[in-house]
Records
---
Amino acid sequence: MRITELQPFILHVPVTGGGIADSTHKVTHWGMPGVIIHTDAGLKGYGYCGTHAHLGSDRLITDAIVNLFGPLLIGEDPRQTQHLFNKLDRHPNNIWIGRAGVTQMALSAIDIAVWDLKAKAAEQPLWQLLGGSPDKTIIAYNTDCGWLNRDIDQLVDDCRHMIEMEGFPAVKMKIGKPDPNEDLKRIEAVRRAIGDEAKLMVDANGKWHLADAIQFGRRFSAFDITWFEEPLWHDDVNNHARLADKIDTPIALGELLYNIDAFRHFIEAGAVHYVQPDVMRIGGITPWLQIADLVASHRLPLVPHHGDMMQAQIHLCIAHRACWMLEFIPWTLDYFVEPARVEAGRFVTPHLPGAGTTLTDQALAAYNQL
Ligand code: 0YR
Ligand code: MG
């Protein structure tokens, strides 16, 4: 099988309730710049990353896919995933301007697409190709009920609904209001509404500084918070390690890290307890598997970020021993041939061949901005 063509796309799809916010931004749409990789066997591989639907930055990603990496792929066998990742990752152009940011996300989309092709060529769902079992249970936690721009009454209703009516065993809420005391009031209200059994996580998206994180993070113990996500600036290893020593609530981070070296630095510094790589940011499935083995070697849990909208990462979670929980956000369930499904708070095992990333022709026609 040989790669014959790269067909880029940029989807912008609506998010819940007309707009969502965390401490860094408010968005009305989720962006999915990506690529369909065509082959001479008639199989197509789909890969994409996740953004805040800014067309300028999305076009940078698709330009890197087509013009930085594209010429290196035509004529190659997509099943040679290790060979192709090394060829692109270590290409002089990528070393000089890449290894993070736009080019790393472009590489992620390509690597996901070639793994999609590899699994389709093997006529297996990716979790099976990787040696997983369909009987493995992956717990879903819901982030789509905890947005920072919901008032406290809506926040409480949405979180209670996900636990009581939808059967999720865990919800995550955003913090990062101008006054952390308001965050504490919201945390207390949600904990009271969902009861003591349900898991509750909080996510600051990097907004807090160390003093606030210590002072207010110590008070999370009263509410049994499962993890404090991205408390501080995303790349700040030392202060996250200091915070981890000062508060009881575990630290979760990784959604904005780009490579295995960054994960190793946080893990070896004792700065993270729940590790959250995102397959659409770190260069794809090939490095995801390496990072997952690193995480497992340190006996830490791996709970991926939702950037691929769970489609590929549910396969990876089923296959890898470090995973037992995955973030859930429902924005893109109508746009995939086999959308991620949750029943009673657990992901349903996908069964179609491939990595789960095949978009419908209708979605490509309706939402493509390219
Ligand atoms: C959502 N999940 C997150 C995204 C969310 C961010 O648009 O920006 O809030 O991905 O932190 O853990
Ligand atoms: Mg987060």
Note: The mean pLDDT is 98.
---
Amino acid sequence: MIQFIDVVKSYEQGNNALNGVTMQIEDGEFCFLVGPSGSGKSTIIKLITGELKPTSGAVHVNGYSLERIRKREIPYLRRTVGVVFQDFRLIDKMTVYENVAFAMRVVGAREKEIKERVPYVLELVGLEGKMSRHPHEMSGGEQQRLAIARALVNNPSTIIADEPTGNLDPERSFEIMALLQEINNLGTTVLVVTHAQNLVELFNKRVIAIDEGLVVSDGTEEENEDEAE
Ligand code: ADP
């Protein structure tokens, strides 16, 4: 579960990035986080992963309290949250297989587990035939799938995808969203951070909208329409 209670975050220089955010995402949910540039989306991601600490308020993520987490606990928190970064952060000199295997090696997985798990997640994202390619030999959509496989490989309970369709055409974007939905159906909590309003409308899911560091609406499109009536 991800829970923010009246979270304020101010950076040393500049205004407050978050001005009292309260929201809760239950285990197993699929949820969009939307908002214009500068509204606080990246700050929310960094608070969830323990990269930043809240200035005030409480952040609870998968059993950890981020406002008082110890440094040595952060790697354990991060194993519960797989992040798919906007710029993928793939390692170009490694093959597809090695990029995913590496994420398991850094957390100390055994070779036997790696050999079983890596082909499984690559199949899940539809890259089973491309294990010995290198990232630069793949399309943007395939690189995005690889980034998703890597985020999934250590079996996190939550996946956060930061603008997963930022550089993709509409058809590939739809496929990536469908893949994230399938991953959600397998039990992983999925949070998709995006400004792609058209995609958000295609998938009738919960949408948390933020603006100027505050939650301005929260619910499915249909619920919000009902409220407006
Ligand atoms: P988004 O991801 O929605 O574009 P951010 O969370 O990056 O928004 O930023 C929210 C606000 O905080 C913006 O006004 C931004 O300028 C400010 N901000 C973000 N990072 C820093 C930083 N390291 N130092 C100072 N201000 C920052």
Note: Residues 11, 13-14, 17, 35, 37-43 surround adenosine-5'-diphosphate (CB under 6 Å).
